[in-house]
Amino acid sequence: MIGKEGGVLKAWEATVKKTHAVAKKRANSIFGTITIGHVEEDHHQENHHNNGSNRVAEENGSSEPLEVYHEEKFLPNGDYYTGEWAESFPHGFGKYLWLDGCMYVGDWYKGKKTGRGTFSWPSGATYEGEFKNGFMDGTGVYTSANGDTYKGQWVMNLKQGHGFKSFSNGDWYDGDWKKDVTEGKGRYEWKDESHYFGEWKNGVISGKGVFVFHNGNKFEGHWEDGVPKGTGTFKWPDGCYYAGNWSRDGRDQDGTYHPSESLDEEEDGHCHAHWEPSELYTALSYYRVGRGEKVPVLPSQKKLAIWRSSKGGESGKPRRMSVDGRVSLGSDRSSDRWHDGGDGEAPIPPPPKTPPKAATDLDDELMNIPIEDETTGPLKPLKAPKKAKRQGETICKGHKNYELMLNLQLGIRHSVARPAPSASLDLKPSAFDPKEKVWTRFPPEGSKYTPPHPSAEFKWKDYCPVVFRALRKLFKVDPADYMLSICGNEALRELCSPGKSGSFFYLTNDDRYMIKTMKKAEVKALLRMLPAYYTHFRTYQSTMVTKYYGLHCVKLTGHIQRKVRFIIMGNLFRSKYNTHRRYDLKGSSLGRTTDKPETEISETTILKDLDLNFIFRLQPSRFEEFCSQIDRDCELLEQEGIMDYSLLVGIHFRHISPDGELVPCGSENLVGKAKNDPDPPGALLGVNMPARVERTVRKRSSELQLVGEPIGEYYDVILHFGIIDILQDYDISKKLEHAYKSIQYDSTSISAVDPRLYSRRFRDFILRIFTEDSS
After folding, report:
1. Which of 148, 191, 709, 718 could disulfide-link to 170, CB 3.0 to 4.6 Å?
2. Cα 743 from chain centre
3. Secondary structure of the chain: what % helix, strand, coil (to 5)?
4. Rounded to whole angstroms, how far apart are CA atoms 405 and 391?
């Protein structure tokens, strides 16, 4: 009996080792080989340990010795760590790779990035320098994805103290910084060698300073909000000068012109007779101070999914660790979790107020899942998220993508206005041929078919132009309105950061259309499925699949030689109704929460499956139509081998109290009052749809609740929804991702699964959160 049990145990151990080896091999296939040599007991490693971990321990006021050894961990959420380890956290020197592509290599102290290290972002941005408690703190060099570089002092992720910043356009600044902006004294030099030296305030020229133009002209005096204001003197190289009081609007402008003693009257009159003080403001308007780009996600915001090591004789179920390596104790969280560091100083974490929670609550808390329980008292009323500024940065002259926008607008104007036969909806198979594309050359001086333009020469490609012209006709898009939206006098707006896929998004000024840059693989996927996509829209007018209006490519010539492919699609949230909540829903649980705390969530924040605390209740006729259409749309995507798509849902709450609380149906506040908004006439499926939502809560239990339990609290809403991200096919990279993650997790919790399984799971989930309103 003993021999039999021993044989079973050995077989089990061999299976575990084999599984770990397979997981490692597959991880290396996905992420590339990532290794750090094992700790050797030689003089070099001993010195590194003494000068690294112990030095950091002294800085943190701790001299308690820790047993440090080497660990290599493939963590349950897909992250990877290799390096020195102590107790249950990285300690010493190690490398941590997050699943989103962020990576830190350097010194650790009890699970916190502390000491010297390098943090890199998927965009190509890097920071190399000193860290303290997870923050960029001390001296360091940050190089952004666009080539801007800052070298200098940091305090809690913010540039603070003296620093030098060089911009990718050739400008540079050397001087004082405060709270991430220029403040104090500093010198800014533009690429034409014009420069300013003097005082700065909140990122703009303010106070006393001197501006020297490249031609030798110079202004010395007082500044306010980037322009001369108050007393000052403008000097010419020949010795003439104008001194007085300066004002941009001219109201307080007053001064005296003084000729140079070395010039006679004739020479002086010829040089500056017609000069006006307003010319200085005109000249200065061409000199803009570079802003650079914001850090996409701060190192202190990156969470560590660390599990307690089995070394040291611990047994039983592994327990999830908090960021700093300790079991999470309510509000007692480490700075890596607490600090956001977005627009100002990072908040200081409050002292612990709650006793330790049960181990069963740890996963919920660490995954940011909203947990409520009626047994702990009355539920808090729901509040509308804070208002958000208009999305995106206007692409004006001087923006790094300004020329690309001009090229895009020129190309689309050419494509839409090009003479062509009246678009028929009955297309020949040849129209869908992937080789069916049209190249057009746009020289700066213009050609027989193209107008002259101010940017460098480029080439323009239209993919399957006949098909997309027919689609625009099918979608009832007027060509003139289409051109006006994209190519009118108003500039496009670039959204602040690229999506998870690395694509960039641009919005038209009227919010009608969204333009997304695409990978070559996505272009191939769309062209492959284009015949089925077109047939689907002709057959089902109420389909919820994303509408595509055009597929194009800009090829930049000259020394750059790069291609930018992009798709034009409709903006789901363009409506007269303000969208208060936005959800991206897939039906999976792994990583499906927002990283933002509740106080940072605004109307434009995209929430995910585990953030959802509502069930959507549709009118009976609409619910039946919805069920039929979701089946048809999923069937299309399944047949085309597509997975990883989402249902994007926007909610407009019709009743909000003056203090920002959502007012439930039947509330006393609504008695005898008319509704805020009339029912929209002729609302389409997924467009301005009147409905109700019922609030749900997730109860504390040992199992994860993807959908909470309804509690009978209803709200009147207007819904917008549609299926997005339909161009990810189940290729080799997704198959490897599935193989790797399925070893660590239940395959039903991850998004990278076979299209058939994905479709079935997606439909099941959607029909759990959308139900018929029987009231």
Report:
1. 191
2. 29
3. 25, 30, 45
4. 17
